[in-house]
Structures are given as C-alpha cells and as structure tokens.
Design goal:
Blueprint (H helix, E strand, L loop, with lengths): L8 H5 L5 E4 L5 E4 L6 E3 L26 H10 L3 E4 L23 E3 L4 E3 L5 H11 L2 E5 L7 H12 L5 H8 L10 E4 L14 H18 L4 E4 L12 H10 L5 E8 L6 H5 L2 H22 L6 E9 L19 E2 L10 H16 L4 E7 L8 E3 L5 E3 L3 H10 L3 E3 L7 E4 L3 E4 L1 E7 L6 E7 L6 E6 L8 E7 L19 E2 L4 E3 L2 E6 L3 E7 L1
Parallel strand pairs: 1-21, 3-4, 3-13, 4-7, 6-12, 7-8, 8-9, 9-10, 10-11, 11-13
Antiparallel strand pairs: 2-16, 5-6, 14-15, 16-19, 17-18, 19-20, 20-26, 21-25, 22-23, 22-26, 24-25
Helix pairs in contact: 4-5, 4-6, 6-7, 7-9, 9-10, 10-11
C-alpha cells in the first residue's frame, strides 16, 4: 500500500485554478425525498427541557412549548423528527411518558447519567411535531426490551380505538391515533456503549422478529434497521451484511451515523470530511446490494442517515455557556452544547451536499440534534433562542434543495490532505425544481485562504438569470454566534456573479458555503 502523501506548504498555498462542471436535465441522480431534511430530538441534556419545552417561559404556549423555538424550527424547514433517542431509547420505558404528568415516574437514564422526569412524553412529542410542521420518526427500545414492547407502543400510537392500549391513549387526551409510519428498530446496537448491546446475529434476528410482528399489525409501516455507528467501527460492513441476511425483506432502510470534528489542527482534512460521508454511503449501498444478490431479492434497501453532524466528541470546542461537565444524575444538565464556528458551518454544508449527491439511496436523514445539544438552535432558560452558524446551510438546503438532483462531475483544482489524500477544492451539487425549472447550486470552497473561480455550463436548462448568490463565510474562520452576539455570522450576498450565454461565472470566497439560485 502506498503511503498517503503529506501536504506541503506549496501545495496548500498555490492559488487554485478554475473549477468547472456542466449540468443537463437529461442527467439526473434522483428526486429528493423531503425527509432528507430531518432532525432529531433526544432526551439528552437540554434538547427537550429548556430547549423545546419550558413551561413558564415568556414564549411558552399552553402546552409549555417554546413558541420562539417552534418558529425557528419552522424556518429551519425540518421535515421529520426522530425521537426519543439515541442512546436514551435503549433504557426507555415509553409508558413512563404517558398519563397525568404529576403521576409520571422519575427514572435514571444510564446512557447520559442523568435523571429523566418524563414530563415530556409521546403525547407531548406528537403535539410538538404538529406545531413544528413536521412528521414523526419513532425509535423503539430493542436494548432492554423487545417485540412485545414494540407492538404495545405501535398499538397505543396508531390503533384507532376499542382496545386497552388505544383507549388508554384516548383517556390520556389523544382520541385520534398518531399515525406514526416511520419506525427505528433500536439504536446503535453495534456499539458496546449501548445498553443491551448485541452481536449482529442477535440483533438481526430480533430486528426481523420485531419487523414481522409490526407488519402483522400494519403491513404498511416503514422500518429502519440499525446499521453501523460509524464507518470506523471494527465490525463495519460485516455488521450490515449479517443483520440484513436476517431482515432484508422485512425492513425498508438501514441506518448510518457519522460525526466529524477538526483533529490535531488538521483543518484541511476537516474541510474534506464529506469524502468520508460519501465513501460511507457508497460502501453501505454496496453491502446492501450484495446481500440482495445473495438472497436473490429484487428489493432495494435504501438508507436512513439518521444521525449526522459536526460534533467535538473530545470536548475541544467552545460551548454555549462555557460550563464544565455536570454532576452525575442531574436533571436536564448542559451536555454537548458545542458552539459552532464558520468553519464548522462550511463542513456542515458540505455534509448536506454529500447527502443530496446520493439522493437515489439516501431517503431519510436526521441532523443530530435539533436544540442546544450539538444543534443549530440554541436557547437560554427563561431567555432568548438564536441561530447557530450551522442553522443557515440547513435552512437554505431545505428550502431550495427540493426537486431533482442533477448529476455534477467537477473538473477543477485539487489539493492534498493528511487524512484523505488528494481532494477537490470544490464540493458541489445542483437541484432542479421540476415545477418552475429553477436550479439551485450548492457549493463549498474547501480552500482556507484562496478564492476559487467557478464556471458552470447550464445551457440545456433554459435559464435566464441569477436570482441570488448567497455566501456563508467570514474573515475570522472561528467566528461564532453567541448569546451576546447572536447574529455575528449570517449569509451575505456575493458580488461579481454573472450568467451569460448559459454559462455561470462566480468567485467563491475562501472557506465558504454558497447557494446560487438561477431561474
């Protein structure tokens, strides 16, 4: 095996040439499933309590939901919300979060060494989802529970009436069924950290039996089997192959989870994180298709990338409050409250581009998480809510990334990174709105210091003008939005972008996320 070439100062300082690509309506990837723009609410830290739910807050509604946060979630454009975990779900008893709030038990949460009050449960979650303009994705506890519990929750949630469980839901105030269609069969069951961790054979059989039973109750449920917690897991690919050998024809999707951070000052590799994301997707697809071939099955498993984000798991990032690690068994402590920089937001945008570039197989994706915990929305108890830097790429992608992804093949300058070797400086995709014919280009310039000239040929698309070229970048790559300065980093308009004779010409600022809209 050849050694990965190390970057030289000359490699990284040379001014880049022009990056080019051509898009044509005849060459497409896939229509975008709107659920690509999902997120995740876990009972972890302050995501739920003082995040989305804070009775007594000046902006709280009659249910205790923060209306300022609901407004930001609607602005973000979140289409599906995964709940209640995450690692939390593997020790969770769903019935604890039902019935009169004053009678709900307090429990220890082993996953995050916190105390769970259960003041917010499935009924409150469904109310929240409706008010947020989203749809639910419910995770099942296959760590400490199993088939019977999954069926009980499914019946409680979805059966109209006339049984003990459906009538119990009605007695709790929800006479209409919740209609939850999308279910996760556990969470990260490959991980030794998971309560109730299992081998691939153990989990594959349990997933199959749970899926078979749930389809007896409702043949049309949509089910996600647990894939690997990252591509770096020692069991990666073998886990997927074994699990799917048990449940391939009983499930619809398999999950992927991935988080990224800058390590050892290697910012160029961090900016190229989406190289790993795309490799992860392609390797899981290859494994799924291999299993289908072995089983002689015509079914095509698609992917649920239901945890992804920038997350400084070593605690090296600044936090929203600057506070240290809380005491064990605290209630709704400040945990994982990373305060994101411009650089983080550019990487985050590149991860969104990776998901869109694989929209043919990625049908569900959930940004982890939604509020306070490694999140695009931050809040203070009793105080304001504001947008982190990562809010902006997600909101723009959700708003303008609906339609059909066009095939983009970049021809342009590359540079060498320590982790990934040679990578393109331009990471890009294009989405066409089939109703209006408008096209949106999403593009990241990975170069830290130099602008990148861009030339895109769009003659076959019948477009007339550039509507907007928005940029997220800053002279300070470590600039962040904070409680004291919540709008320090916001998108701004680019200058000098032209569109003549079907060719777009633009200059992408160094280390930038770009949204270029044409009509």
């Amino acid at each position: 095996m050849n050694a990965v070439p190390q970057p030289s100062s000359a490699t990284l300082s040379a001014a880049p040439g022009t990056a080019r690509f051509t898009v044509d309506p005849a060459f497409t990837v896939s229509p975008v499933d709107p659920r690509l723009f999902g997120s995740f609410v876990e009972h972890l830290g302050r995501c739920v309590y003082t995040g989305i739910h804070e009775p007594g807050h000046p902006a709280a509604d009659e249910a205790g939901l923060r209306t300022d946060v609901l407004g930001l979630i609607r602005e973000l454009g979140v289409t599906v919300i995964r709940y209640p975990g995450g690692n939390f779900v593997s020790g969770h008893r769903w019935e604890d979060g039902t019935g009169p709030v004053a009678e709900r038990p307090r429990r220890l949460d082993l996953a995050w060494r916190s105390t769970e009050s259960n003041r917010f449960g499935i009924g409150e979650f469904m109310d929240f989802v409706r008010k947020a303009g989203s749809t639910p994705m419910m995770a099942l506890n296959l760590g400490t529970r199993g088939v019977a519990d999954a069926l009980a929750l499914q019946e409680y949630a979805n059966h109209p009436a006339g049984t003990e469980l459906s009538d119990r839901r009605a007695a709790h105030g929800d006479t209409e069924p919740y209609g939850i269609r999308l279910w996760c069969l556990g969470n990260e069951m490959d991980g030794p950290w998971q309560t109730g961790h299992k081998t691939a054979d153990e989990y594959g059989r349990l997933a199959a039996e749970t899926a078979r039973a749930m389809r007896q109750l409702d043949p049309d449920v949509e089910l996600v089997a647990c894939g690997s917690s990252s591509q770096e897991m020692e069991t990666f690919a073998a886990w997927e192959a074994t699990v799917l050998a048990h449940c391939h024809d009983l499930v619809d999707h398999i999950s992927l989870h991935a988080y990224y951070q800058e390590r050892d000052g290697d910012r160029d590799s961090f900016l190229a994180s989406a190289v790993d994301t795309e490799s992860f997707i392609e390797n899981v697809v290859a494994t799924c298709d291999h299993v289908a071939a072995r089983l002689k099955s015509d079914k095509r498993i698609t992917l649920s990338f239901d945890e992804w984000n920038v997350w400084y798991q070593d605690g090296s990032a600044p936090t929203l409050s600057g506070e240290g690690k809380p005491e064990d068994w605290a209630e709704a402590p400040r945990l994982l409250e990373d305060n994101y920089s411009v650089t983080d937001a550019v990487v985050f945008g590149s991860l969104l581009i990776a998901l869109l570039r694989h929209a043919d197989r990625v049908k569900v994706a959930c940004l982890a998480q939604l509020v306070n915990v490694i999140a695009p929305i931050a809040t203070e108890p009793g105080g304001p809510a504001w947008r982190q830097t990562t809010f902006h790429p997600f909101a723009q992608a959700s708003r303008y990334g609906r339609g059909t992804v066009l095939d983009v093949r970049v021809d342009g300058p590359r540079h060498t990174t320590r982790r990934f070797g040679e990578v393109d400086l331009l990471h890009a995709t294009a989405v066409r709105d089939e109703e209006t014919g408008a096209v949106t280009l999403f593009a990241v310039n990975r170069h830290q210091h130099d602008a990148l000239p861009l030339e895109v040929t769009l003659r076959a698309l019948g477009l007339g003008e550039v509507v907007e070229h928005g940029v997220l970048a800053d002279a300070d790559p470590d600039a962040r939005n904070t409680l004291a300065d919540p709008d320090r980093v916001t998108p701004h308009a680019a200058s000098g972008t032209t569109f003549t004779d079907g060719v777009l010409r633009a200059t992408l600022e160094p280390l930038s996320w770009n949204v270029i809209r044409l009509a």
